[in-house]
Amino acid sequence: MCEAAEDGGCGAGPGPARRRGQGHSHPRPCMKCGGSAALIIRVGDPFCRGCFHDYFVHKFRAMLGKNRVIFPGEKVLLALSGGPASSAMLRQVQEGLSRETAKKLRFVPSLIYVDEGAVRGQSLAQREQSLAHMEALLQATGFPFHLAHLEQALELPASILRPGPGRSGKPGPSYKEAVEGFIQQQRQEGDRNGGTFSPGPSTQELLQLFEAVETSTAREELLQMLRTHLILQTARTKGYAKVMTGESCTRVAIKLLTNLALGRGAFLAVDTGFMDDRHGDVLVVRPMRDYTSKEIAFYNHFFHVPTVIAPPLRTKRREKPSIHRLIERFLLGLQEDYPATISTVYRTGEKLSPAPAKAISESERCLLCLCALDIAGEEELALEPTLIMEEPEENGCCQDPPAARAESKAAYIPLLCYGCRLTFKELGPLATLPPYVRAEAQRRIRSAEMEQQSLEVPQEDEEPSKS
Amino acid sequence: MAAPVSLQVEFGGGAELLFDGVKKHQVTLPCQPEPWDIRNLLKWIKQNLLKERPELFMQGESVRPGILVLINDADWELMGELDYKLQDQDNVLFISTLHGG
Ligand SMILES: [Zn+2]
Ligand SMILES: [Zn+2]
């Protein structure tokens, strides 16, 4: 570094280059109370600490109040990563439950933390340390909690790729039922057996799965998928109908543009909206999506919200950064010069409809993301060139035909939406994929074949209908 | 001639990972003809504390977008940003809001 010579004691300082503005602190007044401001929030308004606190807390309640999807007494699973947004979310729930009756939140929270240390390059000792730290934080809340390891995603049932019995059409539980459930609800001891985890063959298997992925972009998508499915499975087996996740407005804006670049344009509303109902029985809600990451960072700092930092996903040497990282860099860079960027992208997302993601039948539902297959009509033209599968040379002759067909990567393609096709192509060989994905794919391929046969066979002896 | 300036420099939100995982640094800036401001402090940090991959912390003469700066617990946007003149015993905190990479 050539500037290094400039350093070092008196007299060697840099010249008085470009200076702008006044260098001294002139605390601007808080726009609410006139006290001295501590930060500037989204639209350039200065807020003091106290007014910022009120603003932040109010926003959470307003978000839930406006959307009215969480019933009183309902069991809600908060998905925590240890990161700033989900930690701030947990604090909002704690605040909300301790408030006086009129403003009190009335649902019953439990917590889940997924340890992703294996794929984030943490050593066993580091993983244990993060986990112990996280467990202490969860325990301190007094809420029931679940600790899960990403390795457990390899043991998920194939049913996680099918929507559960939805409430669509049926009215939800009545208010009375909800309140009764609330009274019956007993605080249980959380699942603690996750805490005594020791890595074994499943860690190796998980690492092989991630190693085999060809791009960092597909690796990010894979991680999100496994994590979502693991949380969903916990929600299903433990009886939570709602899951809350902590994406901030900044994250939502980044995800909107990322997903656009990943070919998921049709699903932006479910992927980033307040409510994600693709799983049927479990509704995912995103109550933090109105806060910028700056607001969250200041809140956590001012009000001592503890966080646990996870290192980024491990990338291979000399690998290109993921689209996720590139979009983050791009958007935040743009935001620096055009401060309305993030909120404009975010607000554009508000105008999108969830309808294109709705799948009516299994045959038109994406195997991996459960959104409607967005490929009608354009299959041959637009998609095929990008999706030519490079099958490794396998001697197919000695395999039994139906299994061999179901076990080829190309056979999965018709089951996937456009975006998932692109990601799937960059995943490793089928043998490395999680067992639940393969099991469900095989089931669907077989059932499609049977349907095909039943359509073809009876054609001959069918009587013409008299009408 | 400005006297040496003692500061507490802190890193959080993952920015500490670029500084050997150390969050709090007691720093004494040497005397120099110009008063110390944040611009010069960043240059000093780059040369003295930041050992590798400076592009993950800095961009040009400022911090990378997505890294917040607090001076004595207040948003640096209220304090003149790069032009803020550091006082002895000031606290400067950098919080990363980035996902990494
Ligand atoms: Zn105020
Ligand atoms: Zn899909």
The largest sheet of chain B is:
5 strands, mixed
Stretches with pLDDT under 50, minimum 5 residues of chain B: none
CATH class of chain B: Alpha Beta
Report the oligomer: heterodimer
Strand content of chain A: 5-15%
Q: How many strands, what sense, and barrel or not for the largest sheet of chain A?
A: 6 strands, mixed
Task: Give the N-terminus to C-terminus distance of chain A in angstroms.
Answer: 87 Å
Average pLDDT score of chain B: 92
Question: Which architecture of one domain in chain A does the CATH hierarchy give at level 2?
Answer: 3-Layer(aba) Sandwich
Short description:
The complex is a heterodimer of chains A (467) and B (101). Chain A has 467 residues and is α/β, with parallel strands linked by helices.
Supply database-style keywords.
heterodimer; A: 467 residues; alpha/beta; Rossmann fold; six-stranded mixed β-sheet; 16 helices; 7% strand; disordered N terminus; B: 101 residues; mainly beta; Ubiquitin-like (UB roll); five-stranded mixed β-sheet; 1 helix; 11% helix; binds zinc ion
What does this structure look like?
The complex is a heterodimer of chains A (467) and B (101). Chain A is α/β, with parallel strands linked by helices and 467 residues long. Chain A has a domain at 50-165 and 201-357: Rossmann fold, CATH 3.40.50.620. Helices cover 42% and strands 7% of the residues of chain A. Chain A has 16 helices and 8 strands. Chain A has helices at residues 49-67, 84-98, 124-141, 175-184, 201-211, 216-238, 249-261, 268-272, 293-302, 323-337, 341-350, 379-383, 401-406, 409-412, 418-425, 435-456, and strands spanning 39-40, 46-47, 75-80, 108-115, 145-149, 242-244, 275-276, 283-285. In chain A, the strands form 2 sheets. Chain A has a 6-stranded mixed sheet, with helices on both faces. In chain A, strands 1-2 form a two-stranded antiparallel ribbon. In chain A, helix 7 (249-261) crosses helix 10 (323-337) and helix 7 packs across helix 11. The longest helix of chain A is centred in the middle third of the chain and has 23 residues, at 216-238. Residues 1-24, 168-195 and 390-403 of chain A have low confidence and may be disordered. The longest helix of chain B has 11 residues, at 38-48. The model of chain B has no long low-confidence stretch (mean pLDDT 92). Chain B is globular. A 5-stranded mixed sheet of chain B has the order 2-1-7-5-6, with no helix packed on it. In chain B, strands 3-4 form a two-stranded antiparallel sheet. Chain B has 1 helix and 7 strands. In chain B, strand 3 and strand 4 (62-63) form a beta hairpin. Chain B is mainly β. Chain B has one domain: Beta-grasp domain (Ubiquitin-like (UB roll), Roll). Chains A and B meet through strand 1, helix 9 and helix 10 of A and helix 1, strand 5 and strand 6 of B. The complex binds zinc ion (2 copies). Residues 30, 32-33, 35, 48, 50-51 of chain A line the site of one zinc ion.
